[in-house]
């Protein structure tokens, strides 16, 4: 999926859209998505001015955005203004490597469970061969 298709499935827009491309997607199973981390990110001037590091909460958010893409594609639907995927839980988060400008984050997210529009995922964010972050996510599709 290129950015134009991603925009059809996620309500997020700049500066909060954190997935640039989907490299692989197996409906009902897993997604491999990427985020190019550049010095132009709006959070770097304040986090931290002399040693820019991507905030961990935004890495988790990017992972959740990849998970939402996987869920919508798995359900065979595009969201509308009345549907949203929300966090229901985050467990087992580990930050193993800082993410800095110039890094390319790869999000490998797999569905581990699905019951009535509630999905559980296992996500790993990597920079090259190194794990940057891993987490278990639970998200729910809600109609507004």
From TrEMBL:
GO terms for biological process: fatty acid biosynthetic process; lipid A biosynthetic process. Its main location: cytoplasm. GO terms for cellular component: cytoplasm; membrane. It is found in: Cytoplasm. Its EC number is 4.2.1.59. It is an enzyme of class 4 (lyase). It catalyses: a (3R)-hydroxyacyl-[ACP] = a (2E)-enoyl-[ACP] + H2O. Keywords: Cytoplasm, Lipid A biosynthesis, Lipid biosynthesis, Lipid metabolism, Lyase. The keyword Transmembrane does not apply. The active site is at 47. GO terms for molecular function: (3R)-hydroxyacyl-[acyl-carrier-protein] dehydratase activity. It comes from the Bacteria. The keyword Protein biosynthesis does not apply. CDD domains: FabZ. Involved in unsaturated fatty acids biosynthesis. Catalyzes the dehydration of short chain beta-hydroxyacyl-ACPs and long chain saturated and unsaturated beta-hydroxyacyl-ACPs. HAMAP family: FabZ (MF_00406). Belongs to the thioester dehydratase family. FabZ subfamily. This is 3-hydroxyacyl-[acyl-carrier-protein] dehydratase FabZ. It comes from Azoarcus indigens. The lineage of its organism: Bacteria, Pseudomonadati, Pseudomonadota, Betaproteobacteria, Rhodocyclales.
